[in-house]
Amino acid sequence: xxxxxxxxxxxxxxxxxxxxxxxxxxxxxxxxxxxxxxxxxxxxxxxxxxxxxxxxxxxxxxxxxxxxxxxxxxxxxxxxxxxxxxxxxxxxxxxxxxxxxxxxxxxxxxxxxxxxxxxxxxxxxxxxxxxxxxxxxxxxxxxxxxxxxxxxxxxxxxxxxxxxxxxxxxxxxxxxxxxxxxxxxxxxxxxxxxxxxxxxxxxxxxxxxxxxxxxxxxxxxxxxxxxxxxxxxxxxxxxxxxxxxxxxxxxxxxxxxxxxxxxxxxxxxxxxxxxxxxxxxxxxxxxxxxxxxxxxxxxxxxxxxxxxxxxxxxxxxxxxxxxxxxxxxxxxxxxxxxxxxxxxxxxxxxxxxxxxxxxxxxxxxxxxxxxxxxxxxxxxxxxxxxxxxxxxxxxxxxxxxxxxxxxxxxxxxxxxxxxxxxxxxxxx
Amino acid sequence: xxxxxxxxxxxxxxxxxxxxxxxxxxxxxxxxxxxxxxxxxxxxxxxxxxxxxxxxxxxxxxxxxxxxxxxxxxxxxxxxxxxxxxxxxxxxxxxxxxxxxxxxxxxxxxxxxxxxxxxxxxxxxxxxxxxxxxxxxxxxxxxxxxxxxxxxxxxxxxxxxxxxxxxxxxxxxxxxxxxxxxxxxxxxxxxxxxxxxxxxxxxxxxxxxxxxxxxxxxxxxxxxxxxxxxxxxxxxxxxxxxxxxxxxxxxxxxxxxxxxxxxxxxxxxxxxxxxxxxxxxxxxxxxxxxxxxxxxxxxxxxxxxxxxxxxxxxxxxxxxxxxxxxxxxxxxxxxxxxxxxxxxxxxxxxxxxxxxxxxxxxxxxxxxxxxxxxxxxxxxxxxxxxxxxxxxxxxxxxxxxxxxxxxxxxxxxxxxxxxxxxxxxxxx
Lengths: 428, 428
Known about the structure:
Strand content of chain A: 25-35%
Oligomer: homodimer
Strand order of the largest sheet of chain A: 2-1-3-8-7-6
Number of helices of chain A: 15
Largest sheet of chain A: 6 strands, mixed
Helix content of chain A: 40-55%
Radius of gyration of chain A: 27 Å
Largest interface: A-B, 75 and 75 residues
Mean pLDDT of chain A: 92
């Protein structure tokens, strides 16, 4: 089935907001096996909206509309959809109750007259409760020139749209299909996109059901495996062998097949090993620690973090030797090493991770160009270093460096474990 | 003139990337006084692309296309645009030279045959050099049913698109208009969006030339003032009185009318006052320091930063008293105050800024709910605190808290200065 996303909102056309809803819905549709062929954005203008909706219904089976469901007279999505479908708007008692309930819950003052506009729904449409706002979602099923067409109207604010889509629209769309679609994402870090794609070229060529699709992310490649089957359990059974094959091909570079980010996995690894961590950051200035702190429960493992942007701070807070700074410069393997060891020691942590580099735009030299970053990782007193050569502006270089450091921590933890395993083997 | 943005790329339809180009171009068009009525996304499919382009040319004067200019046979934007305009593709010698030059500069290996596809241009089109890639930009000027129409083709990667737009396309579009369009943005922090909009309601109602438009950003409101005049100088003269009026209405809340962010201004204020700063962060875990470090030259002012997520670190690194932690809890005014004072002392900095709060999802209580954040700011030994009640998920709460802290630092610096002024007045 062909899907068109029709976003309604002048604020998108003015560039005031980025249309992240479209990216979200597109990814969800792809996971459902639906083909999004068009994304359209149109303003809060009834004539242009009506024309865009007609074009969409001509060329697509399902039109998903977001935005324009608010209480003001500028909000016209519902009215326009009803007009195009030839339906009257009728008051929905249940939605009225939902709106009253929402106002009570929020302890908001008196409901104003225009709020009741949101309880008007196209006759015969499927009404979807909005648990995070006052505009209900709506599904209009209709025939056009003998063909089945569907309009799905959803509120624009992401905190209303996302839960509504996941809880109600996704299952509705899944039921439209003869089979259930189910996906698993294998996340890979530490390998380049083109390398990963080459490694799975044969799997992509041979794909039918399940399918496999690569998605490039910052420093990561995600492989989404999607199967169609009579139920989720059967789809999972079909996905399993492919996941096993990917694990075989990518080894420890494949860090998870669950819905979790690399920082979640790193924090979990530390928890499992009952290890603590400390950070020392120069060019990233707290970005790496901040990624770790994004994981709930990080307090168990994060002892402390040091932002040592200046040479003085590097010496004073994490004990980098003045001679190392002088001889090798603050951006050097030597200093990264001492920062990692030093922050672990200062915080009495099992692991110390450090980053020092030239983020630019100034400060680069032929020997140490902008984008050169060193990381140090000390695990139980043993320190390794890594060198990265990154491109982009100051912000990008810093983001890349922090995310590279996460990959590096994971590698060092795995390596420390392997060495332990080897030692155990030796003593056997 | 009516503009339609037509983005070409299956990766957008799959939700693999967010269409930030559309937001960027929309904002630029608004600044130019052009009306973007439609944004459309279509995949790398010749039939659907051709149809979408025809619809766009019917309803708009200028169609800006991005993406699909690469060297592979999937890239069909140029071919489709030429077909719709009825133009042949001819080899452009100058573009060939540019491609050769680009390969030499990048030290890339042999140019492959398909790269020369990028030197083919629609006959009679305006060719725009691409300094950051191999696909040139193209402007096709044509007549359709007696009306002037324009297609502007630009490469999809933002690092190629943005410089090309600013350097070549923006001036081209500006020349199309009888008058020059020029904008100045007044950035306001510390005041809510609805408050700001109410305060300027009369200016918005009375607007003609210059116009004034509010844009809500994280913790900020930006007011863009746009004037049309015979040249930039004349436009600036028209903008000036309105900027003056806004400064009068919003006082120090209006922090800049230049193209700079709040962190730039805070770092600049510290530099001007020859003051240094230290940070102590709990819930934000380095995010605030990281925003400061995003400003080139921050090394002059940032002494060190402490990430004190645990109670132990708060005590050990920045000297929070154990009794304060016990009696008031880590999320309290008292602890925020001690963290601010303590980090300034530990780093021997003139200013200390602290953040401690409940970022969730767990850890909230009726007295201290998720979203409660305290900030402390110590300027030359005098400490003030602020309380924020934020909403959103863990990530959002942390981002808001860091950005609120920037506003708070600025307020405290201004206040410290006023007090100095007052003292001076007293001694006069």
